[in-house]
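Work Package 3 (structural annotation) set out to generate three-dimensional models for the target panel prioritized at the project kickoff. During this period the team completed the workflow that converts sequence records into discrete structure tokens, so that structures can be stored uniformly alongside our sequence database. As a representative example, we reproduce one entry of 387 residues exactly as it appears in the project archive.
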Amino acid sequence: MSHDLLTRRKILKGLGAAALCSSFVSQHAWAVDHRPLFIDGLSFLPEDINDVKASQLSAFIADISDIEAIKQADGTTNYKRSYNACIKSIKAAKAIVDANPEVYLQGQSGLDISRAFDSKRTAVFFQIQGADCVEDDSSQTNWQQLEEFKQQGLRVLQLTHHYGNRFAGGALDNNGKAGLNLPLTPAGHELIEALNHRHMLIDVSHSSPKTALDTAKASKSPIVQSHGAVRSIVNHARCSPDEVIRAIADTGGVFGIFMMSFWLTNRPIPTINDYIKQIDHVVRIAGVDSVAIANDYPLRGQENLLKLNNDNAEGVKEYLDWWHSLRAKNVLGFDVEPKHVVIPELNTIERMSRIDDALKKARFKSSDRERIMGGNWHCHHGAVWWI
């Protein structure tokens, strides 16, 4: 770790996140009535509003984007979050949140997590999985589209989704013969500056390692990978190398571990212990204040697998055509046949309490569990939006 990054991390953690976290721990309701602070790094607004309460979440980042199916040069399909699709979807999401004030509090800052917790509601922070939605925007247009999204409540912008765009390289970029590791572009550097200026959270999920490292260096605020997994455990292009995880942590940021089991373990039968191993790895290489929980499925779980009673052998079939198409392009990790999609114990709306219990069984001390289950997300949001 460089001296500059070490100093930066100390400042961000010490002045921002740590102060907010210690204040929350000592003063808020859960310290009195023992309600847990559970925060999910990525899910979706549910069709059934009752799922929000059932999830026990104090807050979550919600992908509210909509997509257009775009054929890639390599013959595979990418799902582009266009401006037209996403401006409609964010307005629709805002209408849902506004219509349910007894359940939701639309998150604008880290303090809204505390407000939601105290009022027994759930703070929801809008996210879009891909900066394609502002692809026609730039400093020349004064970032009008980005500003419009912010006014509608967008708080988290992911740079890419699988494939790169004019701003950044994607994890699955390839030339038809091998995977690529493309950097943050000059336009991407402008976008980082614009997001920093607006105190919007930068998400490097789905980015190439080079783009993630470039973003960590370029951003003046903490960055996150809201949902991902560890390449040291599963050697796959969609999983992050240790240097990326450390670089995110060095900004004062958070790395969220998600629920897609074929990127959590290559073992034939995934269990909750495989999820805990992912958390433990991030703790060991980057610190306990740098890891958090993510989902990347609906609050209830992966819907097709729920219909199949979590039959992974059957459920994985829906991914195989896509998987094999990228194997043919020699993209890292697709040579290993996936055997499952979910960890059955976690493909449930009760996943957060089950993870907390598993961490306890794995002998994580209570203060560390509180950070992992929600405290790190809460403190991180404060560091981004209030420093």
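The first strand starts at residue 39 and ends at 43.
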